[in-house]
Amino acid sequence: MGFIAGICSRDQSDISTQLYNMAIKLRHRGNSAFCVFSKEENGWKIFQCNDPRELLDVKISFGLVGRHLFLDENMEEIPYSDCHNTRFLLIDGRIFNISHIRKELENSHQEKIKNSGVILHIIEELQKKVFDFSSIFSKLFTLMEGMFAAALILKEHVFIFRDLIGIKPLYLYVGPKYIAFASEKKALWSIGLTQRIKSLRPGRVVRFAEIGFTSHFQAEFTKSESTHRQLELYRDQLLKSLKTNISNLIPQNSFYLLLSGGLDSTILATLLKQMNLEFKPLVLGSRKSKDIQVANKAADFLNLSIETLEFDEITLENLLPLLLYHVESRDEKKINIAFPLFYASKYISEKQIKILFTGQGADELFGGYKRHEILFQENPEKLVEALWEDIRQLHSVNLQRDDAVAMAHMVELRLPYLSRNIIEQSMQIPISFKIQPPFRKVILRQVGKQLGLPEDLIQHPKRAIQFSSGSYNILKKLARKCGFTKDFALKHSFFSPTQLFIDSLAYFLGFPHIDPQIIKFYENESITWPDSFWKYENMIHKIS
Predict the structure, then answer these.
(1) What is the DSSP-derived secondary structure letter of residue 246?
(2) H or E stretch including 217?
């Protein structure tokens, strides 16, 4: 994990201050030294520093900076380099199938292949035979299973790329004076780049240069027609793939599983227990939330000692400005969904744990939403493409949000349902094995039965996390406490008091692109923020 960022000026002006500002805004994402690449006439100058203020002394017009999240300092380094120190890699993420990839490489690389720098050794071997970068990246994406946003630095080229699922974020900016990229939007906002930011499409490789971003390759999922086999065969194949992926994702040190008691996370807890893997289950919610009740029932059945983390409006009051800042969105639904994960990440970080497993992705793969059931009843064939579209949009709908709130506390998410192999296998399962109204995720329920889960856990109805955890009601309570009642909102011609509360707070924090109507309201109305909010005023633009 970590961050990557880069900027170049079209007019050759100095960008050292901008690079420093971006590094400061993203420093929470890693624990290594900062690694800086500055472009010189005869190649790259590389240096590392623990104090990013050293960046201010480097007068350059083209530079990159990165920081890694080390889990084991004996196994990791920054930057990664190839055998001849001619190719370098800055990466936010990890490659999980390194042991498999070792078999693809010559013996001369074997001792050096112990971390995500494996990417460079693959490229080194491929360039002995292939001179076309598109072919090299095609092979690279075929070989790798992982989550990553990365910068590949060669003598003449800089390529940036992102994993096919989009688990790790990356944002691009192209303007009249600057070309830039960063792991989070706030790094670009902090240097005044707000208007042309776009998310790099998952699976895409682009060249980063003074002229802009030039596309070189686009990875795609392999789509295959569904074959008509027995449901039990699909169930067993899915179960085997989940076990394999869990084995790939298991860290050397302790980790947590976010256990809501829903089918997705309960299956993961069961597999972890059956595989004799040491983990800590965690459930969180408001005092009487459904998640806490059901997760404890699942933990009792599995004979697991579960940790319970409760929250209320005071908890949210103390965290909301930071939550909004890290989510980088004013969307009420996103804030409601993000809060439990944000609080969970804070909790486990304080316990010196850096890894959190979640069940993200299962609903998109197996038809877990009510809208999937409705579409199935209208036209099953349309649902197949709808699920593919959900997977393609997963990065922008959920994954970028989840990564941002976890990495706010230097916590790395691991998502057993979201590997390329599992996605492509799951999308071959006939749609009738996923939805049989009124039941959804039928194939996953069959996996639960095969694992011996009781019927009440298998058939537990899905509820959105903002309702099952209680975060929806907590946010509404906090908005009312701050004076944003229904009558107050209607008086000022706004429909939703909670959304008005969030929009006003975003303006207070310095978010760009605030609706003029919100700005006029805020500047004409005397809002009494809680005392804990004031240290975050204009936080977007503060560099400290």
Answers:
(1) H
(2) strand 212-218
- Angle, CA 381 vertex, CA 378 and CA 383 arms, to 5°: 70
Three-state secondary structure string covering 13-42: CCCHHHHHHHHHHHHHHCCCCEEEEEEECC
C-alpha distances in Å from residue 403, one per residue of 96, 149, 286, 407:
17, 12, 23, 6
Q: What is the pLDDT of residues 104-118, one digit of tens each?
A: 776 767 666 778 888
Residue 220, both tokens: 């795609």
Asked whether the beta carbons of 147 and 168 are under 8 A apart, the reply is: yes
Task: Quote the CA–CA distance of 121 and 105 in Å, as a whole number.
Answer: 8
Alpha-carbon distances, residue 173 vs 94, 162, 167, 208 (angstroms): 25, 16, 20, 11
What would the two tokens of residue 460 be?
A: 């537990």
Q: What is the pLDDT of residues 50-90, one digit of tens each?
A: 999 999 988 899 999 999 999 888 888 999 998 888 999 99
Mean pLDDT of 87-107: 86
CB neighbours of 154 closer than 8 A, spacing ≥ 6? 86, 87, 88
Which tens digit of pLDDT belongs to each residue from 343-376? 999 999 999 999 999 999 999 999 999 999 999 9
Look at residues 248, 319, 315, 260 and name the one whose alpha carbon lies nearest to residue 284.
260
297 close to 492: Cβ distance less than 8 angstroms: no
| Interval 263-295: pLDDT, tens | 999 999 999 999 999 999 999 999 888 899 999
DSSP letter assigned to residue 399? I
CA atoms of 260 and 257, how far apart (whole Å)? 9
CA angle 494, 496, 497 (to 5 degrees): 90
Q: Provide the pLDDT for residue 518.
A: 96
DSSP assignment of 108-140: GGGGG-SSTTHHHHHHHHHTTT---HHHHHHHH
Mean pLDDT over each residue of the chain, to the nearest integer = 93
pLDDT at 168 > cutoff 80: yes
Phi (first) and psi of residue 330, to 5 degrees: -105, 10
Please give the Cα distance from 391 to 419 (Å, whole number): 11
- Please enumerate, as own/partner, the contacts of 69-76 that have beta carbons within 8 Å and a separation of 24 or more: 69/1, 69/2, 69/29, 69/30, 69/31, 69/32, 69/354, 69/410, 69/412, 70/30, 70/31, 70/32, 71/251, 71/252, 71/253, 71/354, 71/355, 71/412, 72/252, 75/114, 75/115, 76/32, 76/115
Side-chain-side CA neighbours of 305 within 13 Å: the count stands at 3
DSSP state of 436: B
pTM above 0.90, yes or no: yes
pLDDT above 90 covers a percentage of the chain that reads: 82
Query: What does residue 56 show for φ and ψ, rounded to 5 degrees?
Result: -70, -15
